[in-house]
Automatic annotation (TrEMBL):
GO biological process, one term: methylation
UniProt keyword Ribosomal protein present: no
Coiled coil (UniProt feature): none
Protein name: Methyltransferase/methylase
């Protein structure tokens, strides 16, 4: 019996921006923060958030239907995942990425068609100004961006801490370290390690504040520099997470080679991203992230594990492997031949 085609899946996908914007606005408004202390009824929650009475009930009930809130006897409360990950005061907060998506990416993605037609980025830096220079020059925007990077890196950081054979190494440096989520997570899990992070100078105070708050300032240090202009710190393991996809092919190859040069014999390079599957059919997030690089950068793009292994081999690494981490993220590990 022939199954008749249905438009349901197509319509749901095409209108999925409704779901996304409801979540992003909930984070922006502080819905989950307001309910962190306990349940609240409709009028109390509406008043606390300063919402108009016309739409508040529909908004809160939409969040219930999306499994972000729960409602019992007329009172709203956070669903478990939202309570754990979307309350700003909690160390597990990952909403920084969603805040950035709401403030910047949501509008920019409205110009995807133009980006596909022209090959030109469509974010606020579409005039070909240096996006990262402008970002790092604005303390408030920089702090928000680095918090977003912590959110997007938290899951991968835990997986790298657990899956990589850290017992064989003594030191590591995270290149493009942002707040320091990755080194903090790894250092907590492996007390024998020392290391730190490498990033542009304005990141230093934010990194040091985050590391100090986590009680790791004696083992984790900040290294200031520009990875295109300066040599990378010498260490046993170099990590590059969500870094290579910002740059064009030649810049990617250059950064991999600079990591190789900074490592000792037997040292390791860990590159992690939302790697596109080699057959380019499964990891939709990785492919969409590559479109995000089209919108955000001059020449950046995401890539497959096989692509990255090829760049590592070109740079001189004698062994490479790809290993899944969590969700859409995987890591490519390159080992420099021991003497």
């Amino acid at each position: 019996m022939t199954v008749r085609p249905s438009p349901e899946k197509l319509l749901a996908l095409g209108m999925s921006f409704w779901n996304a914007k409801a979540l992003l606005s909930a984070v922006e408004l502080g819905v989950f923060d307001a309910l962190a202390e306990g349940p609240a009824d409709l009028e109390s929650l509406r008043t606390r958030l300063g919402l108009h009475e016309r739409s508040a009930r529909d908004f809160f009930d939409a969040l219930v239907a999306l499994k972000l809130l729960e409602r019992q006897d007329g009172d709203y409360r956070n669903a478990p995942d939202a309570d754990f990950f979307l309350v700003r005061a909690r160390p597990s907060y990952v909403g920084g990425l969603l805040e950035m998506a709401n403030a910047r990416l949501y509008e920019s993605w409205g110009h995807l068609t133009e980006a596909l037609r022209t090959g030109r980025r469509q974010s606020e830096n579409k005039d070909d100004s240096d996006f990262f220079a402008a970002l790092y020059a604005d303390p408030a925007r920089l702090r928000g961006f680095l918090a977003a990077m912590s959110g997007v890196s938290a899951g991968a950081a835990n997986a790298i801490a657990g899956k990589f054979p850290w017992k064989n190494y003594k030191s590591f440096v995270d290149v493009g370290v942002a707040q320091g989520m990755v080194p903090v997570t790894i250092a907590r899990a492996h007390p024998h390690l020392s290391g730190g992070g490498f990033d542009l100078p304005p990141v230093g105070p934010i990194f040091e504040e985050f590391v100090t708050a986590n009680g790791l300032s004696e083992r984790l240090q900040f290294h200031a520099g520009d990875f295109f202009k300066d040599a990378l710190p010498q260490t046993d393991v170099i990590i590059m997470g969500h870094i290579l996809h910002d740059w064009d092919l030649e810049q990617k190859r250059l950064l991999v080679k600079k990591a190789y040069d900074a490592l000792p014999a037997g040292g390791a390079l860990i590159v992690y991203e939302a790697l596109i599957d080699d057959d380019r059919r499964q990891n939709a997030f990785g492919l969409l992230m590559s479109l995000n690089m089209l919108i955000e950068t001059l020449g950046g793009f995401d890539y497959t594990g096989a692509d990255c292994q090829g760049w590592m081999t070109e740079a001189g690494f004698s062994e490479t492997r790809v290993e899944h981490l969590v969700g859409p993220d995987s890591m490519v590990v390159g080992i420099k031949q021991a003497e």
